[in-house]
Amino acid sequence: MARRPDAPRRPARLRHWRDWQSLAYLAALPALATWQWVNGFAVLLYAPMLFLTLGVGVIHHNHVHLRTWRGRRMNRLTDFWITLLQGHPTFVFWPAHVANHHRHRHGPRDVARTYRFGGDTNHLRGYLLHPFQAVWVLIPVFFGWLGRLRRHRPGPWRYCMAQYALWLGSWSALLLLDWRKALLFVIVPQLHGLHWLLATNYLQHAHADGRRPAPNAEAGAGADAEARCDTAGTRLNYARNFEGLVNPLLFNIGLHTAHHENPHVHWSELTQLHRTRYRAQVDPALNEQGLVPYMVRVFVLGALWPRFRSRSLMSSVPFVPPESSTH
Asked: Binning pLDDT at 50, 70 and 90, where does residue 86 land?
């Protein structure tokens, strides 16, 4: 019997046409770094390169929630490409973000909740320090998750180790080639992007209502079940939203409530979801007109004049201590 010819392989397809913007960012960042490596430092190129490190962090986030491609091979290649560009493995979003932050929504069991570090604050010092504080508590989460993965799913564990090897191998090779250029054009921008990625949690959640309510004895079992959740039932005040230019530039990263409530929709759909479903349900104090004006008002002007500071939304909610700060 004659062997049937293999079916022709379908070309890789993007899941959504708007991800051409993602591909443009993923190509532009190494292009700017390479040009400066060869031709020398240029302020007019270095500044957009730093901006693109922010964009790559958001692309990484979106790629985890909804894979960019319709084929496994291209999605895995994208995992490794983002690993190279970001300077850390892409798998870390699964234990730190999906299994922790999206599960607990800034609640008392969210390992990197902003009010875990020095109280419920929202100021420049807290913003700058939060990435270092978050990394300190997330590292044990990474290693615990990897340990369980190695015992129960060795194939995915090897995939994660390959990402570590690619990241550390790329740093080693570039440092050996020219350590000054490696620091200036690769490692420092990557660390800048990583700081932003972690600090975004502070921007989106500081002074938001992440605590669960105390159970009401008169309400019975329903209230007790609600108290075991990290947010108060249908309340949506656990996140801050930023409207304005940040969203077309950074893939709707500002529309955080809509994203939390719909983590698997494509990022381009968040604009309509925010406008039609969630904006009116969130406390008006959590809907900001723009990211930069918010940071100037709260972090700069607020340091001098109290009237520009944000107000915590957690003070009126009876606090139920968390069962555990890790999971």
From this structure: very high
d(C-alpha 103, C-alpha 195), whole Å: 22
Q: For the CA atoms of the chain, what is the radius of gyration?
A: 22
106: its two tokens = 């800034």
HEC assignment per residue over the chain:
CCCCCCCCCCCCCECCHHHHHHHHHHHHHHHHHHHHHHHCCCHHHHHHHHHHHHHHHHHHHHHHHCCCECCHHHHHHHHHHHHHHHCCCHHHHHHHHHHHHHHHCCCCCCCCCHHHCCCCCCCHHHHHHHHHHHHHHHHHHHHHHHHHHHHHCHHHHHHHHHHHHHHHHHHHHHHHHCHHHHHHHHHHHHHHHHHHHHHHHHHHHCCCCCCCCCCCHHHCHHHHHHHCCCCCCCCCCCCCEECCCHHHHCCCCCCHHHHHHCCCCCHHHHHHHHHHHHHHHCCHHHEECCHHHHHHHHHHHHHHCHHHCCCCCCCCCCCCCCCCCCC
User: What does the pLDDT look like over 222-269, one tens digit per residue?
Assistant: 444 433 444 443 478 999 999 999 999 999 999 999 999 999 999 999
User: Is pLDDT larger for residue 234 or for residue 123?
Assistant: 123
Q: Is the per-residue pLDDT at 318 higher than 70?
A: no
- C-alpha angle with apex 204: 215 to 252, nearest 5 degrees? 125
Give residue-wise pLDDT tens across range 9-52. Answer: 666 799 999 999 999 999 999 999 999 999 999 999 999 999 99
Q: pTM of this prediction?
A: 0.88
Nearest to 258 by CA among 233, 293, 231, 282: 282
* The dihedral formed by the CA atoms of 310, 311, 313 and 316, expressed in degrees to the nearest 10: 180
